[in-house]
Amino acid sequence: MNTEDKARELMAQQRQHEENLQDSMRNRTEAEVHTPHAETVTQEEARELLAQERYHEEHLQETMRNRAES
Q1: Hey, how many other C-beta atoms are within 10 angstroms of the C-beta on 56?
Q2: How many CB atoms lie within 10 A of CB 17?
């Protein structure tokens, strides 16, 4: 498998991971809307999940750049 194929595979995995995270956030938000103080909790958790997603995406892109340079 060449570098381009690896990069494509990693990007596909990244997209799948992002979709799973977004689905999880939506499902969790829907479940928590009906609990007391849900809005505050949901917003905090959504911010944390988005920060984790951004970190993961940045790390994955850095890994792909490093592999492409090798």
Answers
A1: 14
A2: 14
What spatial distance separates the first Cα and last Cα of the chain, rounded to whole Å? 14
Q: pTM for the complete prediction?
A: 0.46
Q: What is the pLDDT of residues 28-52, one digit of tens each?
A: 877 776 666 656 667 788 888 889 9
Residue pair 30/54 in contact by the 8 Å Cβ criterion = no
Q: Do 7 and 66 touch, CB atoms closer than 8 A?
A: no
Q: Which long-range contacts (CB under 8 A, 24 or more apart) does 58-66 make?
A: 60/10, 60/14, 63/10, 64/6, 64/7, 64/10, 64/11
